[in-house]
Specification:
The protein has a domain at about 35-80 and about 90-135: Ribosomal protein L16/L10 (Aldehyde Oxidoreductase, domain 3). The chain contains two helices and seven strands; from the N terminus they run ββαββββαβ. The chain has helices at about 45-60, 115-125; strands at about 35-40, 40-45, 65-70, 75-80, 90-100, 105-110, 130-135. The chain is α+β, with helices and mostly antiparallel strands. The radius of gyration is 17 Å and the shape is elongated. It starts with about 35 loop residues before the first strand and ends in a 5-residue tail after the last strand. Helix content is about 20%, strand content about 25%.
Length: about 140
C-alpha cells in the first residue's frame, strides 16, 4: 500500500469543505493515452487506491502501463469506540488523499481503447467518487 516514509506532522486537520470547485492541477493527461478522471470530490484511502490498481492490473495481464497520479500522504485519525468527549485527537489510523472534481486519478497506455474503458469501469467501482473515462483524442 502507498504511504509516505516520513511525515512532517503526526496528525493532520481534515480540511472539511475545502474541496469545492474543479481541480487546478492534475486535470490533464500527462503520461498515458487514457485516464480515469474523478467527477466528484472526496477522499481516497490508500486501500481504495490499491484495490483499484489491482483490479486494473489484473485485467491488463502484463500488457500496457499504468500510472497512479495521486498519493495518499494525509494521516486520518480515529477515536476508539465509546470514548468520552475530550482527551484530545484520536490515534492515526490510515493514509488518504483529497481529490477534487476533475482530477486524473489513473492513467494508462499501451492497450486498446476497449480494454482501457473496461479497466476504468473496474477501477471506478472500487473508488468512493464518481469517475469517467477520458482519452487524449477527445480530452473530455
Amino acid at each position: 500500500m502507498l504511504q509516505p516514509k516520513k511525515t512532517k506532522h503526526r496528525k493532520h486537520f481534515r480540511n472539511r469543505g475545502g474541496l469545492e470547485g474543479p481541480a487546478q492541477r492534475g486535470a490533464h493527461l500527462a503520461f498515458g493515452s487514457y485516464g480515469l478522471k474523478a467527477i466528484t470530490a472526496g477522499e481516497l484511502t490508500a486501500r481504495q487506491i490499491e484495490a483499484a490498481r489491482k483490479a486494473m492490473t489484473k485485467f491488463t495481464k502484463k500488457g500496457g502501463r499504468i500510472w497512479i497520479r495521486v498519493f495518499p500522504d494525509k494521516i486520518i485519525t480515529r477515536k476508539a469506540a465509546e470514548v468520552p468527549m475530550g482527551s484530545g485527537k484520536g490515534t492515526p489510523e490510515f493514509f488518504a488523499t483529497e481529490v477534487q472534481a476533475g482530477k486524473i486519478v489513473f492513467e494508462m497506455d499501451g492497450i486498446p481503447e476497449s480494454d482501457a474503458k473496461r479497466m476504468v469501469y473496474l477501477a471506478g467501482q472500487k473508488l468512493p467518487v464518481k469517475c469517467k473515462f477520458i482519452n487524449k483524442r477527445t480530452l473530455i
